[in-house]
Every structure is written in C-alpha cells, then in structure tokens.
Amino acid sequence: MAASVVNKTAHSFDKSRLEALLNRRFFYAPAFEIYGGVAGLYDYGPPGSSLQANIISEWRKHFIIEEGMLELDTTIMTPAPVFETSGHVARFADWMVKDTKTGDVLRADHLVGGVLEARLAGDKEARGQAAAPPSDDKKKKKKTAKAAAVKLEDDVVKEYETILAQLDNYTGPDLGDLCRKYNIRNPDTDNEVGEPQQFNLMFASSIGPTGQHPGYLRPETAQGHFLNFSRLLDFNNGRVPFASAQIGRSFRNEISPRAGLLRVREFTMAEIEHYVDPEDKSHERFADVSSQVLTLLDRKVQESGSSQTVQMTVGEAVASGVIANETLGYFVARIYQFLVKIGINPERLRFRQHMGNEMAHYATDCWDAEIHNSTGWTECVGCADRAAYDLTVHSDRTGHPLVVRQALKEPIVTEKEVAEWNKKALGKTFKADAGVLQKLVEELPESELLRLKSELTNGSTVVKTADGKEFQLTPELLTIERKVFKQSIREYTPNVIEPSFGLGRILYTLLEHSFWAREQDVERGVLSLPPLVAPTKVLIVPLSAREEFAPIVQEVSAKLRKAGVFSRVDDSNTSIGKRYARNDELGTPFGITVDFASVKKRTMTLRERDTTDQRIGSIDEVIDVVSELVNGNITWVQACERLPAYDGVQAVE
C-alpha cells in the first residue's frame, strides 16, 4: 500500500491558533512574565530551544563544514571606540515619531506602512475583493491600524502601492512629509504624530567600576570578525579567499517591538564574513549553484513603484549584472538552499535588493532573503558586499595594517618619475613650509612631475598650493629622476561579502510555514517540521505503563540513541491517539508503538506524523528505517516500500 495523501489546506491559516499552541507547548514565552514582562524579550522553552539548536546545527554543517569556514566566538561587550570607528554610533539608528498628546513612540516607517496597508485592505473589502479577517483578540485590534471598509480613488490606491514599494528607501524627513500629506496618525489613539527623530539602537554600557570606559552591547557580531582579521589570515596561511563564521547573541534597543520573535531586543545571529580579492570576485564553486532558480525583486523595479518579482537563475542574474558578482551570487543561492532545506516554503521566499537610500554608503550590492508570513514580507537574512570599508576604517583608526600581502609569481617592473630633495637646503629655504611643499610635490601626478622636470632643466619652476601660495624651486632644491621599481609583493585590503542570519525570525517563519490543522478537526493542530530540525525525532509509545513493556522500551531507546536519533517516551495514562496528537503539535515526525506483539514477536509499528499512516516491521527493521528517515537518506514514500502497512491488528501468537 502506497503512502496516503494529506490535505494541509483544508483550513485557512489561523495565527491565533498557532500562537496558542506555541504558548501552551512552551516553544517560547515573554521573558520575566510573572513580573509583567518586557517588550521584545523572550525565553525559549524545551521545544523552542531544541528547534533553534537543530537549526544552528544544520547551519554549521551547511556553511561552516561544507564551505571550510573558520569559526569564531567573540565578546558581546564592546568598547565604544570600535563602534565609533565602524560608524554605528553615528548611523545605527531608526526613525521614530511621538504621539503629540500621549508621548507614545512608534517607528516611523512601520507606522506609515501599517496605516497605508490597512487603508488598502479596507479599499479591497469595500470593492468586495476581500473580506477583513475576523478577530476576537482585543489586544491585537488595539495594536494594528483599523482596516475600515472605505473605497479609495484608483489614483490614491496607485499612490499608496508606490509608497509601500519604496518604503525602505525613504529618509526621516520623507516619512514626516508622508505623515502630513496622507494624514497618518497613531492608530491606537488617532492623535497626530510629531516629526521623525533618529534613535540609536545600541544598548550603551560602561566597562569597569569607574565608568570611564564606555561600551556597548554589540548589535551584530561582525566587528569581532574584522578586528581579528590578521590572526584569521595567519591561521589560514595568508591565503585569500577564506571565510570566518560566528553564531552568538546580539542586542538592539528596538523602538516599538510588537511582532513577537520577528522584532526583538535580544536575539541570536549567525554571520559570515567572506574575504575576497577586490580584483577577483569569482567563486570556484559558482558553477555548482549557477542553475539555481531564485525569485528576485531588484532595486530598479522597486524604485519604479512596483513589487513585481522575476524568476531567474543565479547564473543569469550575475551575467546580466542584476547581482553584482559571483561570490555574492554564490552565497545568495546557498542561503536559499539552506532555508528550503530546513523547511521554509520556497513559494514564500524571495530576495529583495536594497535601494539606494537604504544601502550603506560603502556597500556595492545587498540582497535580503525575505520570508512571507502573517505580517507580510520579513527580512530574515541579509547578504551584502561591504567592499573594504570595515577593514579600512579599523586599520586607519588603530594603525594596524589589516591587509593581505600576496607574493607575485612574476615581479611587476614599473618606471616612474620620483622627486629627489636636498632636504638641508629645502629646510633652510622654506623652514615651516618645507614639509607641506614636499608632500604637495610628491602627490602630483606623473604628468605634473614631467612638467616640473622640464621647467627645472630650464632653471626653475613654481609650485602653487590650494590656497594660492607660491613656492619657487630650483635644481639645487629639487631634481626629478626616472627610476625603475620592481614589485614582488602585492599588498591589498580584501573586500567582504557578508551573509547575516536572524535565527529567531527564521525559526518563527518556519513555525508559521509548518502549521496546519487536520481536515476532520480544526482543533488538532500539526507542525510539519522536517525531521532534520524537529525538536524530537521519534516518540516511543508503549501501549500502557505495564512492566512487561519496559525492557522493550529500554532496548528501543538505547538503539535509537546509538543511531544518533533523539527520542522521547510517553507512557502517560491517556490514549495512544491523544499521545500522538499532542506530539503532532510538537512537530515530532515519527512514532513507534510498543505493544503485546512487540513482547511476543518483537515487532512494532511506525507512524508518520502528517499522514498518520502506520507501517509494521521487526524492531531492528523499524529502527533502521527510522534512522534513514531522520538522516534524510530516504523519504516516507520509500519507507512504505520497505515496511508493509499495518492493518490495525497484530497477532500475538
């Protein structure tokens, strides 16, 4: 008998049911809840912690192991000069607005986006195109803009859609203009809001008992990579390209975190810094991913006011210049493969290119992996070509050269004009101006040096500073000679390609994508988590707590442990059906039933979560099949070919 087909779309997605399940089964919960909680801070319970650990484990395999990366673990507390140099103190900020009467603070771009989206939803309802979803959650109603059923003029609809398509590209003053032009108010109070102001997102602190050494909790792990570049390069035997990787906590003092795990103040990141020669951004394994098809939303489309995506291969995107270079394209493709592997729905995954105003001034190109969920499209991974900015600014600030010294196979021989000074005479003649004059001449281009050389041959020449001051030079002070230079070492600052993962956001969107309800009973929720990341892989269900089942349960548990398969035993007094149902909520993909036939004939049944199909086999056969299922070596369809269907009755004789 073949595997059954299951209908996962019989009931529409219900976020309130998912949130109730996640809260009831303690995937995560508000931190400090018995003290009233703090917005944007969450604790993970046992299934949430295991799910995150399994996602991290797969991330390590997919990136660190398969790509041969160097793993780091750097400090969270960071001295202020580091972030002053990186630009975070000056620029790591969001725009906020205040309710003019209550003083409530809202993030400006989220306010504009939320109000305009609500108006568009109301317009659709008024036109009969869509009904506003019912909600009995009064708190939720208060926190979101009300979608009143009001029909808008067609040109107004087009304006709103254009604004939403370009929302990430607006500056603070632009957002203020939009609030005034479209009468955008605080949806909680209907009060006007003030002018947008910048709010730095870093948590400030101090290091040591005196408070004389200011510091910050890091908002990203990246700076720890850059400051250790010289050591990493030495560890890698001086060779580029290479990548460092780090998984760790980061902190951002979000203005108004209201979206659960999608916007928090403390979170786990996984970041990669891939160092590459700026003159060669090809990737040796690009051919392996060049045929990967992606859904792309490029900056030109967004700037035209549209959100229309296109599908193309990574190879086509790089060849046509949509994605800047092979290394960036390679990591975009690898990000896609990772997300799909852990269970993200590929039809709800797109890559959006940053527009001009939202991209860092030093970046060459940047793409966000955005995952669609009940709140819209959410950035979960960023992949940027940061050029040489970070290494350059830290090197300039500290005087420590963060560069690669590459021995050339063939020396480069060049000729150029060189200024030769009579420094004693120069100092005597020009005194305090001698140094300024020397620097001015030595920075001149070749053509200017040739002009000076010609004029000196005829007696003297005049050099002017930017402020108009003139200096007369004679051959006694300066001669210009052509010299031959032989370069056997090339020194350069590498560029950095940075994929940056927000693991909490990925975890939450995965839970949304995995959640559905049984066709015959909407109250029976299921999380179809892939075995790869499911918190528990196998549930062992003895028919009852009778002592005669204990040896078999212990044997099966031991064999699964030896096979590297994490399992749990549920020997509670409730029915087997209820035990399976509550583990379907936890995303446990497989269940093993131990009954009287297991004792007498050493057989047991294997249940698959989504279809609820059961197969039967000997203890060792079932364990072998489960091990291969969990390791991804076979599918459930293939497992059904190896084990016969269970008809609901086991003979014990």
Which secondary structure elements does this structure contain, and how are they paired or packed?
Elements: H1 15-24, E1 28-30, E2 42-44, H2 46-67, E3 70-72, E4 77-79, H3 80-86, H4 88-91, E5 93-98, E6 105-107, H5 108-126, H6 138-143, H7 154-165, H8 172-181, E7 197-200, E8 203-207, E9 213-217, H9 222-227, H10 229-235, E10 242-251, E11 266-276, H11 286-289, E12 293-297, H12 299-303, E13 310-313, H13 314-319, H14 326-341, E14 349-353, E15 365-373, E16 376-387, H15 389-398, E17 404-421, H16 423-430, H17 434-442, H18 446-457, E18 461-464, E19 470-473, E20 478-492, E21 495-502, H19 503-514, E22 515-518, E23 521-527, E24 538-542, H20 550-562, E25 567-569, H21 576-584, E26 590-594, H22 596-601, E27 603-608, E28 614-618, H23 619-630, H24 636-642
Parallel strand pairs: 3-10, 12-14, 24-25, 24-26
Antiparallel strand pairs: 1-2, 4-9, 5-6, 5-7, 8-9, 10-11, 11-21, 12-13, 14-15, 15-16, 16-21, 17-20, 18-19, 22-23, 26-27, 27-28
